[in-house]
Amino acid sequence: MGILYGMVARGNVxxxxxxxxxxxxxxxxxxVIDKLPQGISDRILSYSHDHYIxxxxxxxNLTVLCMADDSFGWRIxxxxxxxxxxxxxxTYGRSIHSAAAYAMNDEFSRILSKQMDHYSNxxxxxxxxxxxxxxxxxxxxxxxxxxxIVERGDRLNLLVDKTATLHRNTVRFKRQAxxxxxxxxxxxxxxxxxxxCVILIIIYVTLAFYCRDPLWRYCFE
Length: 221
Prior knowledge:
By secondary structure, the chain is of the alpha+beta class. It folds into 2 domains: 3-163, Beta-Lactamase (2-Layer Sandwich), CATH 3.30.450.50; 165-213. The protein has helices at 25-35, 75-92, 105-121, 127-211, 215-220, and strands spanning 3-10, 13-19, 43-49, 52-59, 62-69. Helix 2 runs antiparallel to helix 3 (105-121). It is found in: Endomembrane system. Residues 7-112 form the Longin domain.
């Protein structure tokens, strides 16, 4: 059930209170206030009664008290007390020192009710658990990012392998192209030489036919 009762008092003078359930919490709270050590301005302590725990925070003679289930722990109740103390001082300031009993009850009891419900039912009210949840979320995100990086690394390795294979194929193709080009050039040279020889033979035969003498005689006569 969480926090069931809340109170703000100056010394033994109750300035505001709220009860979320029909209990004798207000009567027990007054007994707790009466038992608080005198002469100590700053005090944080807890009292047990039946199945309930009364948590108390006193600062500069301003006492903030709440009653919670004994299974509710202490972290959230004391966070509630700190929140209520700051809100009360911020709202009323110096008037706290001279206010009459229940002078702030009409207004501040609504704030007590709202904050009691918040700290009892809202998971985000527990800062430690909220931080743990955020850390868990960050951890899952980091793990997810690491997995993506590893996966991306595998893809990069595959790309590097494919690039290396492509490079080897390119080198092999260039070598084959050079050999083919050389063979084509050599074939062209042989073809050109053969054509020159054929042309020379044709010229010789033609001149010999028209001169009807050996070519060397005709040329030197």
